[in-house]
Specification:
- About 35% of the residues lie in helices and about 20% in strands.
- It contains four helices and five strands, in the order βαβαβαββα.
- A five-stranded parallel β-sheet has the order 2-1-3-4-5.
- α3 links the parallel β3 and β4.
- The longest helix has 18 residues.
- The two termini are about 20 Å apart.
- The model has no long low-confidence stretch (mean pLDDT about 90).
């Protein structure tokens, strides 16, 4: 079973995404992100939740603003270079979102449906496997 860590600054949205993923057969753990609690990843340290994950579902605004989101993804990639990352809440303001290279993510815009979440997770896992 694929284990997903859901990180979102909005607890209601995180719970909704987690429920959709559980219903689709994923094992899910949740984190409120660096705005809710200290984040070891921002200090380039391993995170116990992320250590157990097969894929990460992160809100682009989990660190509060665009620059914080960029820093969080950069740190994730430094510590977990081979772990697939799906980035939600992506919009035109986020010029730092890359789909190739060392800081690559699988971006999702808007309010994704269960099918969109599943598709993005599977693409991220497949893309990451080809990149390693």
């Amino acid at each position: 079973m694929t284990r997903v860590v859901v990180v979102n600054h909005d607890p209601a949205l995180a719970a909704e995404q987690a429920a959709l993923l559980r219903a689709a057969g994923y094992e899910v753990e949740q984190c409120g992100g660096p705005l809710a609690e200290p984040c070891p990843v921002l200090s380039d340290l391993p995170c116990p939740l992320v250590d157990r994950a097969d894929v990460l579902l992160y809100d682009a605004w989990a660190a509060g603003d665009s620059d914080g989101g960029r820093q969080l993804v950069d740190h994730l990639r430094d510590v977990y270079a081979d772990l697939p990352v799906v980035l939600t809440s992506v919009d035109d303001r986020l010029q730092w979102v890359h789909t190739e290279g060392p800081t690559r993510v699988t971006p999702l815009t808007g309010h994704p449906t269960a099918e969109e979440l599943r598709g993005a997770i599977e693409r991220a896992i497949e893309d990451q496997g080809m990149a390693v």
